[in-house]
User: Fold this.
Amino acid sequence: MRKQGTINKPKRILPKNFRNDPFADPPPISENDIADGMFSLLNRGIIPRDVDLTPAFERGNAPFINKIALVENSGSKRPP
Assistant:
């Protein structure tokens, strides 16, 4: 069964004084903004597009670690 109505809600819009003045101090970022994700912060203009975010992702351990998977190959078995 499909849900009726919308399942997403509008996010916080960048206040007008920050939109009009590119040299203003950056707006405060709330916990809800962080939970929405980096892509959402960039799209809404809370984080400027020309900011280098590389140092934020290089700090600490990587979020995903890859390693070789062990696969058992016991020959081809046919069903009786």
Summary: The chain has four helices and no strands. Helices lie at 16-20, 31-36, 38-43, 54-58. The radius of gyration is 23 Å.
